[in-house]
Protein 1
Amino acid sequence: MKISDAKVVVCSPGRNFVTLKIYTDSGVYGLGDATLNGRELAVATYLADHVVPCLIGRNPFQTEDIWQYLYRGGYWRKGPVTMMAIAAVDVALWDIKAKALNTPLYNLLGGKARSGVMVYGHANGGTIAETIDEVGRHIDQKYLAVRAQCGVPGLAGLYGVSTDSQPYEPAQKGLPSESAWSSEKYLQFVPTLFEELRKAFGEDVHLLHDVHHRLTPIQAARLGKALEPFHLFWMEDAVPAELQEGFRIIRQHTTTPLAVGEIFNTVWDSKLLITEQLIDYLRMSLHGGGITALQKIAAFADMYHVQMGCHGATDLSPVTMGAALHFDISVTNFGIQEYMPHSRATLEVFPHGYRYVNGYLHPAETPGHGVDLDEALAKKFPYERAYLPVNRRLDGTMWNW
Ligand code: EZ4
Ligand code: CO
């Protein structure tokens, strides 16, 4: 079997997605996701202009060789554009391989290591009362784990909080919007939110929270300590993680479990975090180099008691979600999977076989990863420029969004 062609499809059924479709001379094709939120066209160009010509004629079963060819062969290693392009190729090739062997993708990984993939949903509100209602709504839908985000008085346009009745979607059309930040107001507020959530729902539901890279290590240490009585499943992205050593400060002060890594794209981003056991969950997704990369990183993390908790926001297309579920169900050190359901339009453009039942997602049982692309429908949703917001402190200083 040989790769005969490949093409990149950019569409925007409510938000932008970049999809790679690889064809073979046997008629089997595979799909990979290359959506880099806010910088989509850079990956589309990287793939179409520089990667696709190198794929033609190769054996699609050689996932390891092709991964190394693109990683080592690029000479300029790492980075989100390169690694997301490699990820799209890798996931599409695993899809082809599983389809050609007529089996669901998980059977080429470890096979089923559990009966379902525990997910956490996103609850948010402008006030504590609204957030309590939203967490309750998720519990009614049988979620076992819920991430809670809440508006903080005095801070406009906060990460994770919807401004309308739709689920929270950070990317906005047009140029980047600006939100306001105060670590002081945030630190003062968040422990009360979780105190009220535990009062309302008791200890059974797993509660999670995303700090979204906005604190310094000592501030994160303070928050982790303050949240200890409320037993979070994890505190996510407490600080920006370029400085891996910064997590030593957080770790030595608190027993609140720590998760990080949704923007990582190689194992080097978390090597010290893992070997020094500074985190509990690694949030890297298939976007960071695909299945070939994530399998190795997960095996390395497992030696240090770090579990996988893959990113699963709506800017990862249903292709990434569908493929991630095969990884999640087959890897031994699985922790939890983020699940933010896509819009109806997106789900129509990407016909898929995965399903949610009582707090768990189940991968498709059809050959491959089980997610397809309706190209005719995708054409009706052309690319629309969109950006993630930026964040400023109250005095105007640029901060981490
Ligand atoms: O803000 O994927 O945990 N989830 C997140 C996401 C990220 C988006 C950015 O594109 O932090 O909502
Ligand atoms: Co996050």
Protein 2
Amino acid sequence: MTFELPDLLYDYDALEPHIDALTMEIHYSKHHNGYTNNLNAAIEANGLGGKTIGELLSKHNDIAAVRNNGGGWWNHCQFWEAMSADGGGAPSGDLAAAIDSSFGSFDEFKSIFHKAAMTRFGSGWAWLGVKDGGLCVCSSPNQDNPLMDGFCNPILGLDVWEHAYYKKYGPGRATYIDAWWEVVDWVEVSRRFSNCQ
Ligand code: MN
């Protein structure tokens, strides 16, 4: 199986002013494209053709090139799809109820997620995931994700690598996180949550 860079569902400037167009262009066309090409090269080099991304991440993550580039490919696919110019606000329905049940309130969830994203030292990701019938927040280093160790089933991930925010926000990761909430597509996250039930 050859993996492809997925089409973006919106223009580079669609998420302005929260996510700037230049960051989107470089992040998608350089970083994500690089992970995609390097994943395919790692698959070829290690004789892993025909595996699904789930198999590669959970069973072959002992190979650094598969772990880093397979994670980079999957993490960014879910990241683009979970943002929208029509995003922001708060979830509704079953996901909203699950957030209230697991964290107390949507605001409390955002606070916990924000802390996880802020305290991930260096490069990595913060995650909302389904675990043991409820929801959890966790984070991972580099391009790792919870599919690698099965800690949870991730339904929303935030990229906290500096390449995701430095051009617009400089070292201001907290400001970037605040801006990102304004573009989170809760319809997409709800769809993912439903698929886990
Ligand atoms: Mn990234």
Protein 3
Amino acid sequence: MCKLTSCQYDRWKPKDDVMPEECGVFGIFMDDQRYDPAEAAYVGLYALQHRGQESAGIAVTDGKDVKFHKGMGLCSEVFKDNLGKLLGGHIGIGHVRYSTTGDSRAGNAQPLVMSYRGGRLALAHNGNLINSSVLRERLEEEGSIFQTTLDTEVMANLIARQSKEGILKAITAMMRVVKGSYALVIMTQDELIAVRDPLGIRPLALGKLDNNYVVASESCAFDAIDAEFVRDIRPGEIVVVNKNGLKSYQAQSSMETALCVFEYVYFARPDSDIDGISVYRSRENMGTRLAQAFPIEADLVSDVPDSATPAASGYAAESGIPYAKALAKNRYVGRTFIQPSQALRERGVKLKLNAMKRNVHGKRLILIDDSIVRGTTSRKIVEMLRLAGAREVHMLISSPPVVCPCFFGIDTPSHDQLIGSKNSVEEIRRIIGADTLHYLSIDDLLKTVEGAGCNFCVGCFNGCYPIDIRKALKETEQLDLKTIE
Ligand code: AMP
């Protein structure tokens, strides 16, 4: 179902304000007092911190008032002196976010809290709408005012416009208009609502803490608060939790689903299960398949910590070559991926990773990483390992070459900065300086997630996106916003 090929991509470039965001969302409805929602949200967000380190926020309600706090930084920094002010509610939602640098500002932190005719509304969104710029322009033409550059505010605006007949109908109407990815957690004064886009592009799971319902981007957040995983929210489903319990509505159904396969490759935590598949197990399988496809004579198998560790263990088990650490990671350095300049990016790699000289000296090394994006990390690492005395460095990647940007919520640089979009594998090998370089094929990657309750989006690996972007934009331009219901 290739709706937009990579060459078509060049004719459609997103505006700056709609670049994808990586985020984590959390929500809890407490029927008893076992856990304070603000505290539960704080712990849950801490467990989802890998999904976004730029800003964090929590909103809670006690049924009358809505309190919230959000700001730039990690959860521990944002809530250091502020969690106490949020205690005492019965519903809470939270959000962690990483966006591209141009869009980095406190005003864009979530949850987004607003008033509408039904009372107060708070929203936390993971994903990216591809038609939000057009929708925003259309809404502005009709007099709407926006305070942020967030897609989430467009969704909130659409919900508010349709809210005369209740929040459920309003959300359903909004879902008919917006196109893209959304795992959305909404809090009204008396309800917690979770919504997953019809293609299920971003994950969203349902959990239970005694009689209390919890939702989160990943199941690892449930473990952190001792909640149990119940099930994944289905693509196109709206789950409403209130004092009468939980109700599910299948607002939209799509024959085809398109969960982002990059969640398994890199983004999600290894201790999470997504749509029926263990992230750890899928990564280990990626390593096994690499070993079957690319047997190499070597002394050691190693990983670029941490996301490639399960794949390296899979490769070592399948090949019989011992696993050992080739790189030590400084755990106090955050992500090095998006930095304002190439020089800082390169310094960032050195700060984060260092060669284990005694392990690699004189050795023929198989080094496994989950992905190559710009190529900075691999080039620096190969150089480091050679300086540390490695005799051979064979680089194996547990995913295919990233050839196209993501428009659905993974933060990838533009086309021209992706090393895989303009170079062959052999050219990339030469650029990064490895003895050999091999990537997992798309077919093999999809085999590692076989058995999931969904199909997958592999748009970053082949330019085939699950939504025809130009068609969606055209339809949005022609839409009569007054008649949406
Ligand atoms: P690069 O140096 O640009 O080739 O980035 C590749 C490294 O970044 C790999 O080690 C990945 O683990 C990591 N990575 C891949 N995708 C992302 C992303 N969306 N955000 C942050 N890091 C990433």
